[in-house]
Amino acid sequence: MINNEEKTTTFVRYENIEIDFYEGKSDTSSVRWINDCEYIVKKLNPRSMFEEKSIHMKIRSTTDSSYSFEYGIVGETNKSVGTVIKIK
To answer: ∠ at Cα 25 (88, 69), nearest 5°?
Structure first.
């Protein structure tokens, strides 16, 4: 939710690379797994100082076709939550 509006990002992950598609734009990030449930995402071509910051992702629960997660900027205490749904 951004400004009380639900937003959707589609992404494709290839081993240690993730390509995100959001509002007609694509972006590529590296993915570094810490353990089976946590990983760090870092944009490969940041366009601003904010985009240079790595994001810590933590999977909280899973189903056959989705997972819920919390995320936040590495080193900061504020966390947000989201859900990933697998599409084919």
So the answer is: 55
What's the CA gap between 35 and 59, in Å, rounded? 10
- CA of 51: how far to CAs of 65, 77, 84, 86, in Å? 29, 18, 21, 25
Along the 88 residues of the chain, how does pLDDT read in single tens digits? 677 887 788 889 888 999 999 888 899 999 999 999 999 999 999 989 988 999 999 999 999 999 999 999 999 999 999 888 888 7
H or E stretch covering 66: strand 66-73
What is the torsional sign of CA 61, 1, 7, 50? negative
**Closest to 32 (Cα-Cα) out of 21, 22, 40, 23:** 40
